[in-house]
């Protein structure tokens, strides 16, 4: 499935972006395995729309609770983040059951935020580094990426029409492999630290290093595509 | 699952093979692992002295000098925040496990679905296993004890250590994946509370910088946003005489490190040095940390 | 050996540091110390004499110079508080007592060393005092004036052929001591960002450390 990955700086400025396409598709069509063209240019917008949610989760004691939902009901995951910020008492009791379900104890790391947002068929996961860099990724839909563009646009329209229905969404959502995504984020995090160790690199500078890019892509291939 | 995709020449492998290895720096190949390297105090203080006299000459006012010195520290502090937190994520348990299970030099043939390779394992204790960048000394390789991970990581390990293998795509990648992530079971939590991050500074950061934890961490009883980190004998400024009115300002470098550390972690603050001589330690220094009001407000919300 | 005065002369003959240590010494030969101008003159005169002396080295001595052993043996814990007393007073890290700046261990150096002062003055004996000169590689001169009068001690031990020649011993002690002052200089003067080369030393830390060392000696 296609993925759109970006590193967003502390000032919500883009630092690095990459699109990972499915390497197994060998078709001549350049777009094969990637995002549909009309959606491609929306990716940065979708991603930035999720930044508010991330910012909210950033100071939550237990932000990871959301990914207990895994690939299932995204809608719930999203609303959880809202409720937990408003009424911590209510949400902790509710979320505790969630965490035990998902196998995340509350003492787990709060770097990987899990799924933070969704945009119709796409789910968005996020990861925060210690200095507040936001690693965000849009996970495309594998089943849809193989169909032609018309179908996709049709599907999205359909989604808009039935946006409240959870069952419909469950069908549309791609199940996410949390562990693989977490590993990917952690590896990129390590790469990012290495880039940061460069004395000529300043915080929030864009990373244009081809070596960095190459490594991120290799990690993506290893873990998530 | 990952092995296949790793070796399959995919569309992006062209960029990998075309990479100019001679030109690329060692930035990404160096391990982030802690190496026990001691810097000569003499060399460090000479450098520090030059830094200070350069800044002192290039500044017109004392405030400007302090600001510049603090800025030097800040860029170090924000890097250390990432680096030290990452290192703290490395679970020492995994190292111990790997050292205990690693037997004496055995040549094992690991056959995976695609690669056949020999990996000589030397169980010489944690030190060798930790130092991943030593994989250049070809005979020593680290063996992962974590059995669940061994299979998925074996491909990684193989091209860490071997270069004469039948996969030309991997050959160029040898030594490139010196990643520590496989030792991380859980990332260290981001510090969200003032006390948590100050504890981290007091312990980990101070140990990293000065080889000992700071001598005290005190909360001001008068003002809610003030905290103090105390160093009985500051290392960097120990040769700078006190009879100069600029001597106290020389401590702004460490202040900058603390400030940069806290700032990038989301705790905007100002840090100032104050001398507080006692009978025993006449160079006793207090780093006064004054958090911005927003930090306290956020803290109150979460409480 | 009571150190009466310590002078540091820079490579161009300027006096950059001078202290009198009176009161602790057994002999108070000089009731009235020289004024600061006198010391400046003394320093530059010494510098000149030193330069002349280095030209006056007899040819025979110059020719046979390779045979002369300039190695100064290491005299342990001279001026530094010795281990046992130190360990109790400074409970581990933190205490400044016994910490030797950038020098590791409990003494500044542990080996014998070769004197760089191969052609100039090393010792000046009068019936009032004895003066020892330690010259560094860069021409900086550390001068110690001791109240000990050498001829008296020579009379005690007239056997001049032996290695325990008190004259030699005094030089060795003085060289060890001055070398340690040089170590202090390298830490507390050279690493002071506000010190400009060749200028008088005003560091209070250097002052303190030198005083501590003098106290330890006498």
Write out key terms for the chains shown.
heterotrimer, A: 225 residues, alpha+beta, Beta-Lactamase, five-stranded antiparallel sheet, globular, C: 218 residues, two-stranded antiparallel ribbon, 6 helices, Trafficking protein particle complex subunit (chain C), golgi apparatus (chain C)
User: What is Rg of chain B?
Assistant: 24 Å
Q: Which residue ranges of chain B are poorly predicted, with pLDDT under 50 across at least 5 consecutive positions?
A: 1-22, 98-176
Bulk shape of chain A? globular
CATH topology of the domain at 41-89 and 184-302 in chain B: Muramoyl-pentapeptide Carboxypeptidase, domain 2
Looking at the overall shape, the CATH architecture of the domain at 1-26 and 33-60 and 108-142 and 172-224 in chain A is 2-Layer Sandwich
Short description:
Chain B: Belongs to the TRAPP small subunits family. BET3 subfamily. The complex is a heterotrimer of chains A (225), B (303) and C (218). Chain A has helices at residues 37-40, 43-49, 51-58, 74-86, 88-102, 142-145, 149-161, 166-172, 178-196, 210-223, and strands at 3-8, 14-20, 112-119, 122-128, 134-139.
Q: Could you characterize the architecture of this molecule?
A:
- Chain A has a domain at 1-26 and 33-60 and 108-142 and 172-224: Beta-Lactamase, CATH 3.30.450.
- Helix content of chain A is 46%, strand content 15%.
- Chain A contains ten helices and five strands; from the N terminus they run ββαααααβββααααα.
- Chain A has helices at residues 37-40, 43-49, 51-58, 74-86, 88-102, 142-145, 149-161, 166-172, 178-196, 210-223; strands at residues 3-8, 14-20, 112-119, 122-128, 134-139.
- A five-stranded antiparallel beta sheet of chain A has the order 2-1-5-4-3, sandwiched between helices.
- Chain A starts with a strand and ends with a helix.
- Chain B has a domain at 41-89 and 184-302: Muramoyl-pentapeptide Carboxypeptidase, domain 2 (2-Layer Sandwich).
- Chain B has helices spanning 2-7, 13-18, 41-58, 62-89, 92-101, 126-130, 147-161, 168-171, 194-210, 252-264, 293-302; strands spanning 106-111, 116-121, 216-219, 226-231, 269-275, 285-291.
- Chain C has helices at 36-56, 59-63, 83-89, 150-156, 166-188, 204-217; strands at residues 3-9, 15-20, 71-72, 113-114, 123-125, 130-135, 141-146.
- Chain C has one domain: Beta-Lactamase (2-Layer Sandwich).
- Chain C has 218 residues and is of the alpha+beta class.
- In chain C, helix 5 packs antiparallel against helix 6 (204-217).
- Mean pLDDT of chain C is 77; it is low at 24-30, 83-98 and 152-163.
- The chains are: A alpha+beta (225), B alpha+beta (303), C alpha+beta (218).
- The interface between A and B is large, with 46 and 43 residues.
């Amino acid at each position: 499935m296609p993925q759109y990955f970006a590193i967003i700086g502390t000032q919500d400025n883009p630092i690095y972006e990459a699109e990972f396409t499915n390497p197994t598709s060998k078709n001549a069509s350049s777009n094969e395995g990637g995002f549909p063209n009309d959606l491609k240019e929306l990716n940065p917008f979708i991603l930035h729309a999720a930044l508010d949610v991330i910012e909210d989760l950033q100071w939550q004691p237990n932000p990871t609770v959301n990914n207990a939902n895994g690939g299932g009901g995204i809608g719930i995951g999203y609303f959880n983040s809202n409720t937990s910020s408003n009424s911590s008492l209510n949400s902790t009791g509710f979320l505790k059951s969630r965490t035990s379900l998902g196998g995340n104890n509350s003492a787990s790391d709060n770097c990987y935020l899990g799924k933070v947002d969704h945009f119709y068929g796409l789910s968005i996961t996020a990861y925060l580094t210690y200095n507040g860099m936001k690693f965000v990724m849009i996970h495309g839909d594998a089943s849809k990426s193989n169909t032609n563009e018309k179908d996709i646009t049709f599907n999205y329209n359909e989604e808009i029409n039935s946006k409240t229905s959870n069952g419909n969404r469950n069908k549309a959502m791609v199940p996410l492999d949390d562990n693989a995504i977490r590993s990917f984020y952690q590896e990129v995090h390590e790469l990012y630290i290495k880039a940061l160790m460069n004395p000529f690199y300043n915080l929030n500078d864009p990373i244009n290093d081809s070596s960095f890019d190459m490594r991120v892509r290799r990690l993506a291939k290893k873990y998530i595509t | 699952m990952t092995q296949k995709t790793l070796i399959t020449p995919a569309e992006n492998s062209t960029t990998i093979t075309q990479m100019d290895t001679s030109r690329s720096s060692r930035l990404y190949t160096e391990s982030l692992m802690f190496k026990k390297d001691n810097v000569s105090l003499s060399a460090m203080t000479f450098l520090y002295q030059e830094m200070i006299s350069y800044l002192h000459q290039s500044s017109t006012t004392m405030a400007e000098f302090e600001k510049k010195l603090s800025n030097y520290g800040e860029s170090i502090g924000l890097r250390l925040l990432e680096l030290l937190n990452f290192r703290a994520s490395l679970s020492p348990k995994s190292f111990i496990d790997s050292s205990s299970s690693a037997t004496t030099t055995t040549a094992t043939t690991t056959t995976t679905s695609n690669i056949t390779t020999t990996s000589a394992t030397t169980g010489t204790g944690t030190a060798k296993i930790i130092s991943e960048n030593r994989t250049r000394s070809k005979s020593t390789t680290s063996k992962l004890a974590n059995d669940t991970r061994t299979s998925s990581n074996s491909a990684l390990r193989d091209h860490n250590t071997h270069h004469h293998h039948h996969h030309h795509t991997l050959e160029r990648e040898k030594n490139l994946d010196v990643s520590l992530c496989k030792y991380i079971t859980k990332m260290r939590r981001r510090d969200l509370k003032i006390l948590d991050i100050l504890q981290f500074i007091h312990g980990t950061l101070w140990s990293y910088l000065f080889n000992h934890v700071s001598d005290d961490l005190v909360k001001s009883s008068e003002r809610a946003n003030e905290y103090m980190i105390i160093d009985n004998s500051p290392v960097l400024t120990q040769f700078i005489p006190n009879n100069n009115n600029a001597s106290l300002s020389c401590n702004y470098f460490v202040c900058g490190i603390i400030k940069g550390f806290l700032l990038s972690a989301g705790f905007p603050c100002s840090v100032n040095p104050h001398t507080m001589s006692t009978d025993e330690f006449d160079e006793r220094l207090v780093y006064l940390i004054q958090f911005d009001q927003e930090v306290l407000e956020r803290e109150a919300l979460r409480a | 050996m009571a150190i009466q005065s310590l002078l540091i002369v820079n490579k161009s003959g300027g006096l950059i540091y001078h202290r009198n240590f009176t009161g602790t010494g057994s002999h108070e030969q000089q009731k009235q110390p020289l004024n600061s101008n006198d010391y400046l003159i003394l320093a530059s005169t010494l510098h000149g004499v030193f330069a002349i002396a280095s030209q006056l080295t007899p040819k025979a001595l110059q020719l046979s110079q390779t045979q002369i052993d300039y190695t100064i043996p290491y005299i342990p814990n001279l001026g530094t508080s010795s281990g046992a007393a130190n360990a109790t007073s400074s409970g581990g890290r933190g205490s400044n007592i016994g910490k030797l700046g950038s020098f590791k261990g409990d003494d500044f150096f542990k080996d014998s060393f070769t004197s760089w002062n191969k052609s100039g003055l090393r010792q000046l004996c009068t019936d009032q005092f004895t003066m020892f000169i330690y010259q560094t590689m860069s021409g900086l001169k550390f001068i110690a004036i001791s109240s000990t009068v050498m001829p008296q001690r020579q009379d005690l031990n007239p056997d001049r052929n032996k290695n325990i020649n008190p004259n030699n011993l005094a030089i060795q002690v003085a060289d060890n001591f001055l070398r340690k002052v040089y170590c202090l200089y390298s830490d507390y003067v050279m690493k002071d960002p506000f010190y400009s080369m060749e200028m008088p030393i005003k560091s209070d830390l250097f002052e303190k450390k030198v005083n501590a060392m003098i106290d330890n000696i006498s």
